[in-house]
Amino acid sequence: MRVCTIGTGYVGLVTGACLAHIGHDVICVDNNPEKVELMKSGHSPIYEPGLSEIMKSAMAANRLQFTTDLGAGIAHGEILFIAVGTPPLPNGSSDTQYVEAVAKGIGQHLNGEYKVIVNKSTVPIGSGDWVKMLVLDGVSERTKQPLLVGGGDSTHAPEQFTPQFDVVSNPEFLREGSAIYDTLNPDRIVLGSNNQQAIDLMLQLYAPIIDRKYAEDTSLPPVSVLATDLGSAEMIKYAANAFLATKISFINEIANICERVGADVTQVSKGIGLDSRIGNKFLNAGIGWGGSCFPKDLAALIHTGADYGYDARLLKAAVSVNQQQRTLVIQKLQTSLKILKGKTIGLLGLTFKPDTDDLRDAPALDIIHILIELGAKVKAYDPIISPQSSTNPYLANVNLVDSPQTLATDSDALVLMTEWSEFQEIDYPHLAGLMRSPIVVDCRNFLSPIKLSESGFNHIGIGC
Ligand code: UDX
Ligand code: UDX
Q1: CATH 3.40.30.10 fits 327-460, yes or no
Q2: What is the pLDDT of residue 150?
Q3: Which residue has the least CA distance to atom 34 on ligand 1?
Q4: Is the pTM of this model over 0.85?
Q5: Digit-coded pLDDT (tens) for 389-412
Q6: How far is CA 452 from CA 288, 423, 447, in A?
Q7: Residues in domain UDP-glucose/GDP-mannose dehydrogenase C-terminal (predicted)?
Q8: Rg, Å, the chain Cα set
Q9: Is 293 a catalytic site residue?
Q10: CATH number of 237-324
Q11: For the CA of 173, the nearest atom of ligand 2
Q12: Which pLDDT score, from 0 to 100, does residue 161 have?
């Protein structure tokens, strides 16, 4: 089928590339010319394992193109994905200006062919109807006539352009670092629309994925598809992220109690995770969640509740527990080193999770800010964020080094921020000898306390 994805961030580019990979004819549109040029040369502007490979093969098969020309993309696609950013505003609500611009742009370029407009970006609940209105605004701006929708005296109405489209909410559940896998092996596909024709086209689009044709395990039963109304589909996205974030804050709250009573949260997590009603995923205590989704989606959901007179106390508590975890790490450093002023702290990992280059709301950024405020010197080593590559202003005062050995040299403590698998392979006995004081605060309980203490380190975990 002919597809257009608008916005080539983590979601738009992955969605476009995967749909081309499974056989569709895709044009990806982005308003950033540098990004488009980069993608035309087969390179991905984001780090996502496996993405550039499927981009290159889909481009070679002539099924994936990139352009800044929104009109060309819209003319091409019978399915149009809106996947532009919806970043949080200071008050927690979503900044939907980009969705507005794109929805109106679509209205201005509709060509009479029936199209399905898909909300892939996480948009505030109740946006489906709002996007439809914006598209119609775009149409009427183009025809410069007041658009008669429904009633109106058609006998005298001037030649009207009757747009043929429906809006579908199709929330994404991609985790950064495993976005390709998650797209081709979804637990479920959620479709929100009150129009069966639109639902049927989406089922046709996703058929190869539903039938597990590109799955890691092709023998699995077909993917569950939930077709529901627009508002419920939008709420499913927020509720899923809010639950996962709350689950993490729950185990962090338990970790904080474990520390006081001498229990080991990694054991507690294992023990409760064996209950099938709880499950063992998203129960890793540590410095908590960051990234471009959980913080944004919880803030938006809390804000939506407030807009309708509901105080989301549980969700607010999940957010405040999460924020507190970050200060906890500083307290642990102060307990070990007493005064941090003048001390050198080395951060192992900067990104908000492994296998991504995304620093958005990474806990490391807050830790850096607090350490600098306290007068400490901060060094950092990250497998993806190299000294040359980083232009992030938050890292301006950080001495980015190119190896764990350089990081450890003359440092007073290490802080493991991100559980990159290569951090298991480091020669810790050697590192201990390079440090002023061999202390490591393990913010992800990722390293073996026994192995680290045998290496000469004072290993400090979270909740254990
Ligand atoms: C986005 C949404 O922010 C998030 O709500 C949703 O959950 C997933 O999709 P992401 O893909 O990370 O997340 O967005 P981002 O990385 O900000 O990329 C958006 C892209 O859209 C950028 O490449 C930007 O250049 C492009 N864009 C933005 C347009 O093409 N047109 C616009 O008008 C605005
Ligand atoms: C999340 C959702 O998982 C995904 O479904 C949604 O589409 C987008 O948001 P993402 O933010 O990319 O994906 O990463 P995820 O793996 O969910 O981790 C989110 C944060 O939680 C990370 O900072 C991670 O370090 C943290 N985390 C995760 C924990 O602290 N403990 C855990 O047990 C799991």
Answers
A1: no
A2: 47
A3: 98
A4: yes
A5: 777 888 999 999 999 999 999 999
A6: 22, 12, 7
A7: 346-449
A8: 25
A9: yes
A10: 1.10.1040.10
A11: 7
A12: 65
